[in-house]
UniProtKB/TrEMBL annotation:
Any GO molecular function: methionine-tRNA ligase activity
Keywords per UniProt: Aminoacyl-tRNA synthetase, ATP-binding, Ligase, Nucleotide-binding, Protein biosynthesis
Signal peptide positions (record): none
EC top class, as a word: ligase
Domain Methionyl/Leucyl tRNA synthetase: 5-201
InterPro entries: aa-tRNA-synth_I_CS, Met-tRNA_ligase_1, Methionyl/Leucyl_tRNA_Synth, MetRS_Zn, Rossmann-like_a/b/a_fold
Catalytic activity: tRNA(Met) + L-methionine + ATP = L-methionyl-tRNA(Met) + AMP + diphosphate
Domain of life where this protein originates: Bacteria
Taxonomic path: Bacteria, Pseudomonadati, Pseudomonadota, Gammaproteobacteria, Pseudomonadales
Similarity comment text for this entry: Belongs to the class-I aminoacyl-tRNA synthetase family.
Protein name listed in UniProt: Methionyl-tRNA synthetase
Ranges in a coiled coil: none
Length: 207
């Protein structure tokens, strides 16, 4: 008998689940879990609501609602939707209500820093002085530098690429629609290139 921990990509609780959530990661994880259990394997299905996503803060600002309360309300809706289609994770975590979540994130960051895998340096980032928000992910929108379609500064839903904010055109604040300004900020970056050998070993399967 084998043991599996199946994790589902966490949905952002800025609303209920949509068909893409259900038909994609949730259904696939549920089918895999059921099949493994039928084969006699021990299988645990887990997921959580992505409470700290930047889209939560933006939605809260747009609706004049505390984003923490908004996350709790929509997590209730998400769990009800999953129950209605008989997808039942063994554990569903809500980060805002989990006292260990922030501590665990801090431990991971600390371990990476101690391993010299974190680089802190200045970078130029889009910023809206009127709204006092950085144009990260949910807070900036423009034209994707890969396909030209309108896209948030995170992932283009048209071509599935991750746009480069510096190369996007007509980049503007998502809250007030004013053009983004560029401002220097001191940030921490993961030295991802240093993990290339380990990632290759994990992801590339022999043919």
């Amino acid at each position: 008998m084998s043991k599996f921990i199946v994790t589902i990509t966490p949905p952002t609780p800025n609303g209920d689940l949509h068909i893409g959530h259900i038909a994609g990661p949730f259904l696939a994880a549920d089918v895999f879990t059921r099949v493994q259990r039928q084969r006699g394997h021990e299988c645990v299905l887990v997921s959580y609501s992505d409470d700290y996503q930047s889209y939560m803060l933006r939605k809260g600002l747009e609706q004049g609602v505390d984003p923490v309360e908004l996350a709790r309300r929509n997590s209730d809706r998400i769990e009800a939707s999953l129950a209605a289609i008989n997808i039942q994770p063994d554990n569903w975590m809500r980060p805002h209500d989990n006292p260990w979540f922030a501590e665990a994130v801090g431990e991971v960051f600390g371990a990476l820093r101690d391993a010299d895998a974190i680089e802190c340096r200045d970078s130029s980032e889009p910023y809206c002085p009127d709204c006092d928000v950085w144009g990260y992910e949910a807070f900036a929108r423009g034209n994707c530098n890969y396909c030209g379609a309108e896209s948030d500064a995170s992932q283009c839903e048209n071509c599935a690429q991750a746009p480069d904010a510096e190369l996007m055109t007509d980049l503007r604040c998502k809250l007030c629609c004013q053009p983004s300004q560029w401002k220097k900020v001191h940030r921490a970056f993961l030295k991802l290139a240093g993990f290339k050998p380990q990632l290759r070993d994990r992801l590339v399967r022999p043919t």
